[in-house]
């Protein structure tokens, strides 16, 4: 696959058939040096879906912004263990809503009634929403319920 920095003509000349995937725009993706992430946490959505499919898990998707207070509160819940993402059941991916392709894809996939952040949802490895998503600020208990076996 051609590097994203190559011009479209150079990619075509190199024989690339597919357009490059969108680049994540969050702080982890932009870090100057590699960041060690837990095995269940990845910034590459396609890798997360393939991993979930191969390992028969679901994808727990979180979409937010670095400057969103509610988003950072949700991420704090995850970091502090108030929201526990069972890595045996889920591949967790955190995406930045400022990436246009991410935003439009997830809003069209989940069709939320509003577009408040953070936006969290559960999908299978085939990129199909399997539960109703949550948008806006919620309690740790509400996020845990989203991941429960109850639909």
Q: What is the CATH third-level topology name?
A: Glutaredoxin
The computed structural class is: alpha/beta
Strand order of the largest sheet: 1-3-2-4-5
Ends: how far apart? 39 Å
Number of strands: 5
What is the string of helix and strand elements? HHEHEHEHEEH
Which stretches are poorly predicted, pLDDT < 50 over at least 5 residues?
1-40
Can you describe this structure?
The chain is an alpha/beta fold and 151 residues long. The protein has one domain (22-147): Glutaredoxin (3-Layer(aba) Sandwich). The chain is built from 6 helices and 5 strands. The chain has a 5-stranded mixed beta sheet, sandwiched between helices. The termini are far apart.
Summarize the structure.
This protein has helices spanning 8-13, 27-30, 45-54, 69-79, 100-110, 140-147; strands spanning 41-42, 58-64, 90-96, 119-123, 134-135. The chain is α/β, with parallel strands linked by helices and 151 residues long.
Could you give the topology of this structure?
Layout: H1 8-13, H2 27-30, E1 41-42, H3 45-54, E2 58-64, H4 69-79, E3 90-96, H5 100-110, E4 119-123, E5 134-135, H6 140-147
Parallel strand pairs: 1-3, 2-3
Antiparallel strand pairs: 2-4, 4-5
List keywords for this structure.
disordered N terminus; 5-stranded mixed beta sheet; 33% helix; Glutaredoxin
């Amino acid at each position: 696959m051609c590097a994203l920095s190559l011009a479209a003509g150079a990619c075509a000349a190199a024989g690339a058939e597919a357009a490059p995937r969108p680049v994540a725009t969050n702080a982890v993706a932009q870090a100057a040096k590699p960041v060690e992430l837990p095995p269940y946490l990845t910034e590459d959505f396609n890798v997360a879906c393939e991993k979930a499919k191969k390992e028969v898990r679901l994808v727990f998707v979180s979409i937010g912004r670095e400057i969103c207070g509610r988003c950072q509160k949700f991420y704090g819940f995850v970091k502090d263990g108030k929201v526990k993402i069972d890595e045996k059941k889920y591949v967790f991916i955190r995406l930045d809503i400022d990436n246009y392709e991410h935003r439009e894809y997830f809003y069209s996939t989940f069709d939320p009634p509003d577009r408040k952040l953070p936006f969290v949802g559960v999908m299978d490895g085939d990129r199909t929403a399997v539960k109703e998503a949550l948008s806006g600020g919620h309690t740790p208990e509400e996020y845990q319920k989203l991941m429960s076996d109850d639909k």
